């Protein structure tokens, strides 16, 4: 070292005082480190070898002679100079005491220029203090140390270096400097490779590295092994087509050529069957690059089977949804809201049929929908949308739109809102469906119409009348107005229906409805209650106006295709005097109509209080009648029929009387009609038949061979029990059928000619006598009369009453007598009250008569007495003149 010191530039001693650090600066506890010993063995060994050499030389110097000492020093100096490791000696101040050749090369400064320079000038600012601290500690504690610094070599960039210092002597310490540039580069590369391998192996995607030249797999990661189901060994050296990619070597070649040309290739959802039979879909990304001059292909395989399956499921569900939406009858739509602006995102094809506009037209104009809403329904739709957009639920609404073709359509509109949550809370979408309910609405309207109207005449029906008239009455009450209720019933409608057929009856009802509508104003109500009953409500009409309307109505209805003139009867009640509610007005108008009917029809009658009294009376009679039969209050009177030629009994007529507990003996005219209308005449008729037969039997039992006529009403003649009742009575009493005579009026026969004719034939077949009562006042034609199985005509008493004075009556009676003769029918004149009537009849050739002149109707007991007078009881009566 002395030699080195001698060779060192004199600047060394010059800079001693301004050295690296001074005694004062020397640290007290610097640590020795052995870090990097194994990393840098050469430098350390070299340094340790020099240290050992120096120690050996020192020992030799102590023990040897001078010549040997010189030689040793030279050898030592040479080894120091030629050592491959950059070596330096540093003074306590950190000045360079000596440097070997490698050291001078490292720092890029001639050795002579280095001596005396602080070593720190070659260090970066941040690492210089590191070395200074270590040196202080080294000189203090005489320990070796190692540290890493950054050297700013002359003419080369800063490079990392490691300094190994031997234990310092009192004056100097030796350091070996190792350039770490190459080492660190190597270490970086090793780190990079390890990191790459780690990344390669831990990648989730399967990675295959191919030698591009031969197309064979040269590396695979674990993910690829798991994905493909092949072991790593099976994969290495194989080609892509051999592990299931691409259809074969040709196809693979094409793919690799394309990859080569473009540098990168991507395939999405390639189907792949793995070695263990799994069917997968993988996204394939191939890219080609050079590694150390060799071209490789990296294949990235990502298992997208779940995604693919989900996509397929989604596509399938979308397809199903589309199929459903395209085939349902509803028009489905979806509108998106973005920043408060609506835009159409879906309109199913059905929109064209329902609205006339194509989906494209909706996409172009988001407000098209609103434009077609019917003006009257716009408020309803706005309210509906307001509810929906506010997030409230609302049932579907029905509204109208104007179809593109101009027609009006009824729609059922239902929709729901899809909302965004969180910060961007608000409406995202409006989804809805629309159904064309035009036909349904029409059907509903029709059903509603039919529920409230009569289908035949299309007039309001009973329930509608009821609802409307209540409103009319309420308005009339508030406005202090009058109104009239007209109850109309077609005269003889049943006969028209029965004789001319129901089609004709229907047409008649329709023409009546039309006529009533024509005769009234729009503010009036015309309705059909049912059957041939109509109700007309005339608003703000008194007696005068109502009379005028009623006269127009009853002027007569002509029936299309028929010459018959049809008449009607009308009853009128007035609000408020005849009633303040519908039912009272209707009841009173009905009473008045009944009165009009009783007056012969073809007329109208205003309701009067008297009608009500009569109705009340009638009601009382009806109530009493219901109890009369069971209380045995009916009795039979008998009026004789007389042969006016011989004066002999020719028969008798049974006539009913009601022995009323309060009213006394009530004549049949006061109750027969009521009994018939209330359905009580059937049991009463059965009682009459039974009683007459029993009386005849009683007389027979007394040796009197009598016969009797019975009056039969139309209702009982048509009753299902009629024939059986007669047969049973004959059977039970055993009287001969020919002792019983049935009197039917022309009206009875005409009420249902077919059925009555059948019953008459049956009675005739049984052996009963049949006669037409009140003959002459009806409308029997001769041709019709010929068909009837009757034995006798009974001239109505109205013709006999004024026979002496009334030439018309004479003519009628003569005519009936002639008819009888020509048709070989017996003729009896009833209502003979005096001798002149009898004489006239006798003069005209009449054979039989009945009347007060001979006898009033007698109770059975009286008749028994009369009968006992013998055959010629009336001989004196017939020969008085
Ligand atoms: N269905 C039934 N109808 C019956 C029955 N009994 C009677 N009647 C019908 O009631 C009407 C009135 O009958 P009545 O009060 O009994 O009157 C009868 C005679 O009393 C009356 N008559 C007879 N002779 C004269 C006379 O000279 N002058 C006169 N003013 N009246 C007279 O005529 C009635 C009998 O008429 P008719 O039946 O047409 O022969 C009457 O229509 C009865 O038919 C019954 O049981 N069932």
Automatic annotation (TrEMBL):
Region Disordered: which residues?
Answer: 1-48
User: What InterPro entries does the annotation carry?
Assistant: Biofilm_reg_signaling, EAL_dom, EAL_sf, GGDEF_dom, Nucleotide_cyclase, PAC, PAS, PAS-assoc_C
Q: What CDD domains does this protein map onto? A: EAL, GGDEF, PAS
Gene3D superfamilies listed in its UniProt record: 3.30.70.270, EAL domain (3.20.20.450), PAS domain (3.30.450.20)
Single GO MF descriptor: cyclic-guanylate-specific phosphodiesterase activity
Stretches of the chain forming a coiled coil according to its record: none
- Which catalytic reaction applies to this protein? 3',3'-c-di-GMP + H2O = 5'-phosphoguanylyl(3'->5')guanosine + H(+)
Residue span, PAC domain: 395-449
Annotated GO biological processes are: cellular response to nitric oxide
Q: What is this protein called?
A: GGDEF domain-containing protein
């Amino acid at each position: 070292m002395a030699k080195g010191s001698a060779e060192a530039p004199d600047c060394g001693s010059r800079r001693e005082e301004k050295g690296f650090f001074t005694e004062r600066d020397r640290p007290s506890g610097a640590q020795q480190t052995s870090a990097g010993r194994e990393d840098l063995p050469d430098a350390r060994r070299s340094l340790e070898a020099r240290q050992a050499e120096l120690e050996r030389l020192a020992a030799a110097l102590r023990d040897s002679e001078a010549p040997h000492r010189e030689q040793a020093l030279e050898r030592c100096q040479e080894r120091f100079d030629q050592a491959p490791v950059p070596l330096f000696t540093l003074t306590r101040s950190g000045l360079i005491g000596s440097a070997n050749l490698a050291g001078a090369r490292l720092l890029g400064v001639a050795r002579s220029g280095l001596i005396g320079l602080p070593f720190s000038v070659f260090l970066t600012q941040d690492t210089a203090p590191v070395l200074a601290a270590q040196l202080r500690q080294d000189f203090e504690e005489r320990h070796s140390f190692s540290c890493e610094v950054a050297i700013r070599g002359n003419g080369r960039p800063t490079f990392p270096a490691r300094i190994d210092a031997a234990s310092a002597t009192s004056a100097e310490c030796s350091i070996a400097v190792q350039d770490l540039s190459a080492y660190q580069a190597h270490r970086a590369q090793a780190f990079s490779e390890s990191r790459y391998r780690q990344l390669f192996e831990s990648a989730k995607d399967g990675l295959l590295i191919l030698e591009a030249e031969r197309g064979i797999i040269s590396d695979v990661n674990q993910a690829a092994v798991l994905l493909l189901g092949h072991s790593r060994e099976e994969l290495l050296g194989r080609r892509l087509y051999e592990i299931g990619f691409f259809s074969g070597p040709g196809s693979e070649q094409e793919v690799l050529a394309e990859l080569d040309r473009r540098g990168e290739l991507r395939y999405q959802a390639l189907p792949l069957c793995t070695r263990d039979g799994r069917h997968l879909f993988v996204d394939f990304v191939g890219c080609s690059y050079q590694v150390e001059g060799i071209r490789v292909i990296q294949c990235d395989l990502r298992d997208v089977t779940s995604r693919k399956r989900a996509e397929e499921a989604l596509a399938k569900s979308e397809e199903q949804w589309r199929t459903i939406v395209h085939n349902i009858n509803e028009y489905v739509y979806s509108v998106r809201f973005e920043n408060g602006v609506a835009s159409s995102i879906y309109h199913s094809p059905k929109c064209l049929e329902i609205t006339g506009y194509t989906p494209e037209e909706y996409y172009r104009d988001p407000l098209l929908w609103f434009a077609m809403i019917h003006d009257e329904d716009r408020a309803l739709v706005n309210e509906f949308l307001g509810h929906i957009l506010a997030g409230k639920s609302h049932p579907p609404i029905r509204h109208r739109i104007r179809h593109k073709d101009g027609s009006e359509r009824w729609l059922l509109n239902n929709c729901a809102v899809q909302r965004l949550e969180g910060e961007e809370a608000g409406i995202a979408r409006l989804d809805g469906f629309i159904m064309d309910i035009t036909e349904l609405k029409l059907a509903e309207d029709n059903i509603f119409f039919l529920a409230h109207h009569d289908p035949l005449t299309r007039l309001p029906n009973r329930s509608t009348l009821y609802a409307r008239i209540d409103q009319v009455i309420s308005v009339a009450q508030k406005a202090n107005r009058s109104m009239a209720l007209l109850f109309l019933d077609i005269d003889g409608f049943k006969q028209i229906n029965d004789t001319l057929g129901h089609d004709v009856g229907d047409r008649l009802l329709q023409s009546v409805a039309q006529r009533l509508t024509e005769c009234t104003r729009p503010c009036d109500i015309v309705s059909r209650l049912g059957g041939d009953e109509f109700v007309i409500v005339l608003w703000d009409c008194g007696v005068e106006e109502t009379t005028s309307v009623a006269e127009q109505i009853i002027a007569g209805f002509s029936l299309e295709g028929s010459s018959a003139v049809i008449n009607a009867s009308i009853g009128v009640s007035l609000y408020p005097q005849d009633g303040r509610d519908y039912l009272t007005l209707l009841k009173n108008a009905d009473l008045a109509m009944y009165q009009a009917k009783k007056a012969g029809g073809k007329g109208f009658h205003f309701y009067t209080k008297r009608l009500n009294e009569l109705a009340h009376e009638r009601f009382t009679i009806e109530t009493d009648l219901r109890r009369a039969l069971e209380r045995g209050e009916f009795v039979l009177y008998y009026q004789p029929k007389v042969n006016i030629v011989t004066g002999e009994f020719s028969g008798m007529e049974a006539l009913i009387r009601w022995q009323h507990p309060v009213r006394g003996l009530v004549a049949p005219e006061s109750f027969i009609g009521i009994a018939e209308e209330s359905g009580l005449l059937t049991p009463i008729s059965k009682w009459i038949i039974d009683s007459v037969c029993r009386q005849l039997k009683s007389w027979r039992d007394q040796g009197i061979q009598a016969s009797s006529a019975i009056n039969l009403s139309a209702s009982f003649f048509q009753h299902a029990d009629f024939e059986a009742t007669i047969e049973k009575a004959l059977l039970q009493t055993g009287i001969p059928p020919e002792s019983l005579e049935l009197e039917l009026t022309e009206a009875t026969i005409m009420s249902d000619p077919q059925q009555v004719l059948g019953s008459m034939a049956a009675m005739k077949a049984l052996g009963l006598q049949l006669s037409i009562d009140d003959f002459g006042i009806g409308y029997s034609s001769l041709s019709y009369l010929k068909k009837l199985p009757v034995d006798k005509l009974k001239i109505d008493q109205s013709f006999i009453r004024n026979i002496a004075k009334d030439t018309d009556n004479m003519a009628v009676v003569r005519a009936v007598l002639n008819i009888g003769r020509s048709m070989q029918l017996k003729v009896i004149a009833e209502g003979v009250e005096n001798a002149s009537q009898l004489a006239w009849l006798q003069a005209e050739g009449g054979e039989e008569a009945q009347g007060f002149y001979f006898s009033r109707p007698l109770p059975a007991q009286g008749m028994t007495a009369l009968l006992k007078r013998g055959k010629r009881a009336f001989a004196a009566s017939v020969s008085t003149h």
